[in-house]
Amino acid sequence: MAQHKARKRFGQNFLTDQSIPEAIVRAIHPESSDTIVEIGPGLSALTNPLLERVDHLRVVEIDRDLAARLRHHYSPKRLTVIEADALTVDFSQFGQGVRIVGNLPYNISSPLLFHLMESADYVRDQHFMLQKEVIDRMVAKPGDSDYGRLSVMLQTRYKMYSLFDVPPECFDPPPKVMSSVVRMIPLGADRPVAQDPVMFARLVTQAFAQRRKMLRGSLKDWQINWQALGIPETARAEELSVMDFIRMSDFCSQQKS
């Protein structure tokens, strides 16, 4: 088949250094019977080593030419190709304990991460290659310069670990940024959960909208009793823990009711 040219509209950067997919597979440590779904298999850099370890693999590919290549190259007994935009796929359809992996398109990484949260109850773990800057924000702790809305929202649902960095020269075409690999493990049913998830999301967004502002300024319209919550009104959003945001949200929910 003809050589495939990377398409900018799909954010395609193909791995050419085979040591990286092998390192990702070692991190996943799959068993032969695992239910694994790969997002964006591309030219099969990660697909091949995964198929050496599992009985059957499912992949989600938006590019119809690449989907056709995959169907041509692999038996349907080993590989199921779902030709679709990952943002439209309901990942709960794959059943309990699904493991999701992929070299995610950087242009839709945040929307896709939020979309996957909807299926987190069905997921065992997720391993993704993303822009290093994004992963630094995902795993950041209160007080870190990278700590922000993405950190708080994802940390309500996952325990996350930055595993290793991947330089641009490992790709074709090489991206202009450093990449990293992250492990995401969904938190259990006993995790703290805001009473009103919609209000919680609004509160976090508002708090970080002007991150250098003190909370008494950025959240002045929320009528929060800072003293009752034990949170200094002079604090800034980047200083608060995920639990602090949940307590603030619950306070506002109770005031509203």
Describe the structure in brief:
The chain is α/β, with parallel strands linked by helices and 257 residues long. It is 33% helix and 19% strand.
What does this structure look like?
Helices cover 33% and strands 19% of the residues. It is of the alpha/beta class and 257 residues long. The chain has two domains: 8-186, Vaccinia Virus protein VP39 (Rossmann fold, 3-Layer(aba) Sandwich); 197-256, rRNA adenine dimethylase, C-terminal domain (Helicase, Ruva Protein, domain 3, Orthogonal Bundle). It has a seven-stranded mixed β-sheet with strand order 4-3-2-5-6-9-7. A two-stranded antiparallel sheet has the order 1-8. Strand 3 (57-61), helix 3 and strand 4 form a beta-alpha-beta unit. Helix 7 packs across helix 10. The protein is elongated, with a radius of gyration of 20 Å.
SSE layout and pairing:
Layout: E1 14-15, H1 19-28, E2 36-39, H2 47-51, E3 57-61, H3 64-73, E4 79-83, E5 98-103, H4 109-117, E6 123-131, H5 132-139, H6 149-155, E7 158-166, E8 171-172, E9 179-186, H7 197-209, H8 215-218, H9 226-229, H10 242-256
Parallel strand pairs: 2-3, 2-5, 3-4, 5-6
Antiparallel strand pairs: 1-8, 6-9, 7-9
Helix pairs in contact: 7-10
